[in-house]
Design brief:
This is FAD-dependent oxidoreductase. The protein is α/β, with parallel strands linked by helices. It is built from 17 helices and 24 strands. The strands form six sheets. The chain has a seven-stranded mixed β-sheet with strand order 9-8-19-20-21-18-22. A hairpin with a 2-residue loop joins strand 4 (about 65-70) and strand 5 (about 70-75). It is globular.
Length: about 475
Amino acid sequence: MTPWLLNRHSDTTNTAERVVMPHLNRDVVVVGAGATGLTAATELKEAGFDVIVLEARDRVGGRLHTDEIDGQMYEIGGQWVSPDQTALIDTLQTLGLDTYERYREGESVYIGPGGVAARFTGDISPASDSTQAELERLIETLDELVAQTDPAAPWEHPRAAEFDRISFRAWLEAQSDDAEAIENIALFIADAMLTKPAHSFSLLQALLMAASAGSFSHLVDADFILDKRVVGGLQQVPLRLAEGLGDDVRLGHPVRTIEWGEGGVTVSTDALTVAARHVIVAVPPNLYDRIDYVPPLPRLRQQLQQHQSLGLVIKVHASYETPFWREAGLSGTAFSPYQLVHEAYDNSNHGETRGTLVGFVSDQKADALFHLSAVDRRRAVLESLAAYYGPQALEPVVYYESDWAAEEWTQGAYAASFDLGGLTRYGALQLEPVGPIRFGSSDLAAEGYQHVDGAIRVGRRLAREIIEEASVPTEGASA
């Protein structure tokens, strides 16, 4: 048996430590009780490892959070399930969680540069014939490039260096002189996914985003990418995983220090220390530096972390006594690169008679919105929704803004991405362990990048790596 596994169930304390700082021994410490950390902990526990999960928040779930606001249930964080997210679908089935389809009957709404709302069906906006043709051409071109891109190693694309030096917007402008087509294509990656301006990330980063979903066409198809929801909310995934781990999940324990070396790690919070053979840091990359590493992380790892950042998006929820848009023949799907709310959907909960719309305000538009007072912010958002759905959208019975940038232990949404040149320079390095330290979250996923599906895949990979390492005989040990 691997030596550190002999420490199982040996929570040791002396008299002084009971007073000052309890000291625990575990095989693996997991930092972060999101989908990645809890998946890894569950897999490791099932393999016979002693695990403890340390979570800074007073709840589990990370960027998954279901809450009740003024009597209305809202999924404040991630919520959708698409058909290609097989790791998530498998987990839902294992946990016995049911899903239901997003409402999509009726026509969608698009607002072009002239500010006029147009109703349509299908995925392509009802622009002029020339703009529609240009949209179709650009989508086809991107699909061809995405098909050549391995989401697990986009830096290995034969033109990776070239694609990582040019911004997504600059590439689009080099491909087309149709301004409306450019704005619409940019919307599906910049506003809707990376939540950063299209000039701030590379073409290669955009290809990774699309490749992680299977194709660029999938990102355009709302009925695919936003297919289903979980009855009761997607946060039930981490909640149920945490139930299976019981007291091995400790809330309100932000990790302050990780001391590491060849012999393992000592992980310290304000209330306890844990000695272990491995640690998994399962938080977004922008939070890595909230931990003090002793000795410091290698220089390139420190550089890597300075070239990844989260985007910015405000998720807005508006509930009405009835889903009035359905009576008007609308599906609730609406989008426009020219509106404050760049996309919105019918987000009515399973079994409710109320109707709920969810909309998103991202990147520079979110910057501007945060300069307004709460009252003016609400008015501006509802006026944007009314541009799509009519004046009834101005009078919700419940209204709420999910502001993940204000969350101490998140500080942005949806996920981290690299700046120009960062993906080829550091992409492969982010997957490598540093001694006994492994890093992972949906931000580092290949398939399912920045989604719960990717978080689960990364959690499984990290657990598998530790299990495989433990099964390798140490030097000099008998076979």
